[in-house]
Design brief:
globular; 20 helices; Heat Shock Protein 90; alpha+beta; Ribosomal Protein S5, domain 2; ten-stranded mixed sheet; about 650 residues; about 35% helix; Rossmann fold; single chain; five-stranded mixed sheet; about 20% strand
Length: about 650
């Protein structure tokens, strides 16, 4: 009998080629399967796995405080919950703490005795953190004793040992340890991500802040403290108003068309539903959905149930009160201007994948739908003035949508959305393989001309834009379709926008924004990012949007020429080169000749590109609203608060 088969590449495939990896080897060999990626996103996912364990203690009602610290070489999370048990497990003859840290698919969240609801369901969170950390230290405070254990890359460096005790609520350590504990009960985890695994080890304060603030909103009364020991920054989040405060926070930069936030909370079949919503005059929807405090970025059955309910109640109210003006009201009309938070607490949620982006439980749709119909209908009956304001807004949306449809049809009839009909605007590339092509959106005809000369015509397309495009944060779809620059953008990219968006029609794998390194250039970048975020968000979430990084300075000494991209880098290079170096400051792309533009900004071998990503949807929504909306006061407050952080400002 033959033991194997000779494959086309000449290698024989035999039984001994089959490998069985240990848990640690499996996670370290394929970390993306567990945390999504090994870049900045995966790094922060690692931290949130630890935070989620503390949040689960809060959901169980046994944790009131969580403290997150960004250390110089790692991060720590401490809660005042019950603390992970350290005694010997009767079946496995190992300490429970050790099982939790080293055995995949272990934990206390499966039988629902200890945790009725939880975000961690698969039993892989803290284990993965341990396996992907160069060093991990865990401290448990329970039964008036303090225990500690240390690990490296999933393997224990020490046995569990008692390092102190609790006397009359005070922490007394028996060893001299570099350890600052804040509460007499709970769990403390410190870890250093493994540089062998991660592309970056830098935890971003603002990114962590946004995630922690959202969790504080979702858990009314929970206190979450963030401390950055690298620079002394510190903030505390605690919201007794919960989701109501969350909605008001998101709506800071826009005008709410009614004062109060519609809020309801109910339960069916052990599934708890909590919703807060408010309408604004914004031309877009802001909807954030969570299950057991885990954000479901791709929605799911809970979102579908809520949207069905809102559509039905609004439509019924409009018909019963003769307000519809013979217009057909769609779900899109009802969602435009809506800010809503949906929070479902479910004992057995079914997520799609470890990253939990979408809820799949079929029963949730009906439960959220029935609860929402009951409470929204009751609110409309008890608040008729507000109900009429909301329905009037929806009807105006329907009228604007119909006008936009007619405008769009007119645009299509004139072939202005046909990517081939852009003479003098789009300099296309010859290659048709989307994954290998890129388009540069360039500020101004002058820079566009240089870019056309500098580019590689095979795979690089150039679309010059005249001036600043329309601020879509303040404009609806009807106005957008009247803008020549926006029509050119939509046409060149090929996907369509909003409900007509189809990513399969994308014409270029990379969409690169290339503007001057001054205030006007920054404004144009922001306007373009606002357009992509509101009209083609999937281009961002799928990693297609980039910002070119042209150099700020050209430094020459003799025959040596160095391009630098920051003031800090300039000072470092000047120190290395010594005296007699000539420094040229680039204020615009037009100051570079085509060869320089190619070498510094367009050549894939030498350029620097910044990929745009959305880590925290609530923070992204709020910042676009704050900075690009029509409310002056919140924007002024934001600028005043962050003015000192500006390092480079051209006037």
């Amino acid at each position: 009998m033959r033991r194997g088969k000779i494959m086309e590449n000449g290698v024989e495939y035999k039984a001994e080629d089959i490998q069985i990896l240990s848990d640690i080897e499996a996670v370290r060999k394929r970390p993306g399967m567990y945390i999504g990626s090994t870049d900045e996103k995966g790094l922060h996912h690692l931290l949130m796995e630890v935070v989620d364990n503390s949040i689960d203690e809060a959901l169980a009602g046994v944790c009131k405080n969580i403290i997150v610290k960004l250390h110089g070489d790692g991060v720590s999370v401490e809660d005042d919950g019950r603390g992970i048990p350290v005694d010997i497990h009767p079946l496995y003859n190992k300490p429970a703490l050790e099982i939790v840290l080293t055995e995949l698919h272990s934990g206390a969240k499966f039988d629902k005795k200890v945790y009725k609801v939880s975000g961690g369901l698969h039993g892989v969170g803290i284990h993965v953190v341990n396996f992907l950390s160069e060093y991990l230290k865990i401290v448990v405070k329970r039964d008036n004793k303090i225990f500690m254990q240390e690990y490296s890359r999933g393997k224990k460096l020490s046995e569990i040992r008692e390092i102190g005790r609790i006397e009359e609520g005070k922490i007394i350590l028996s060893e001299s340890l570099d350890l600052e504990l804040s509460s007499p009960t709970g769990t403390y985890v410190y870890f250093r991500p493994d540089p062998q695994i991660f592309e970056t080890l830098n935890f971003k304060y603002d990114l962590v802040k946004g995630k922690l603030r959202s969790l504080a909103f979702l858990n009314k009364g929970l206190r979450i403290v963030l401390k950055d020991l690298r620079n002394g920054l510190s903030e505390e989040f605690k919201y007794d108003g919960g989701l109501i405060e969350f909605v008001k926070f998101l709506n800071e930069g826009v005008h709410a068309i009614h004062d109060d936030v519609l809020y309801y909370e109910d339960q069916e079949e052990n599934i708890k539903v909590e919703v807060a919503l408010q309408y604004t005059d914004a031309p877009y929807e802001t909807l954030l959905a969570y299950v057991n405090d885990i954000q479901t970025e791709d929605g799911g059955t809970h979102v579908a149930g809520f949207r069905m309910a809102l559509t039905r109640v609004v439509n019924d109210y409009a018909k019963e009160n003769n307000l519809s003006r013979d217009l057909t009201i769609t779900g899109d009309d009802i969602r435009e201007g809506l800010t809503a938070i949906i929070l479902v607490k479910h004992p057995e949620p079914q997520f799609e994948g470890q990253t939990k982006a979408k809820l799949g439980n079929s029963e949730v749709k009906g439960i959220v739908n029935s609860i929402s119909i009951k409470h929204i209908k009751k609110y409309f009956e008890e608040h008729p003035a507000t109900a009429r304001i909301i329905v009037a807004k929806v009807i105006n949306n329907a009228a604007a949508r119909e006008a936009a449809r007619k405008a769009k049809e007119m645009v299509r009839r004139k072939n202005l959305l046909d990517a081939l009909d852009l003479p003098g605007k789009l300099a296309d590339c010859s290659l048709e393989d989307r994954d290998k092509t890129e388009i540069f959106i360039v500020e101004g005809d002058s820079a566009g001309g240089s870019a056309k000369q500098a580019r590689n015509r095979e795979f690089q397309a150039i679309l010059p834009l005249r001036g600043k495009i329309l601020n879509v944060e303040k404009a609806n779809l009807e106005r957008a379709f009247k803008s020549d620059e926006i029509k050119a953008l939509i046409s060149a990219i090929g996907t369509g926008v909003k409900d007509d968006f189809d990513i399969s029609k994308l014409r270029y794998g990379k969409i690169i924004i290339m503007t001057d390194a001054d205030v006007d250039g920054a404004h144009i970048r922001t306007l373009l990012l606002t357009f992509f975020y509101r009209y083609m968000r999937d281009l961002i979430t799928n990693g297609h949007i980039y910002i070119a990084q042209p150099p700020l300075y050209r430094i020459q000494k003799g025959a040596e020429v160095i391009y630098v991209y920051s003031d800090e880098e300039k000072e470092r290079v000047l120190k290395q080169l010594g005296n007699n170096a000539v420094v040229q400051r680039f204020k615009g792309l037009g100051e570079m000749n085509p060869q320089q533009l190619w070498e510094t900004t367009m050549n894939p071998e030498t350029r620097r590109l910044l990929r745009i990503d959305i880590e925290t949807a609530s923070e992204a929504d709020r910042l676009f609203t704050l900075l690009m909306g029509d409310q002056v006061e919140p924007r002024r407050d934001f600028i005043m608060k962050h003015a000192k952080e500006v390092m480079n400002l051209d006037i």
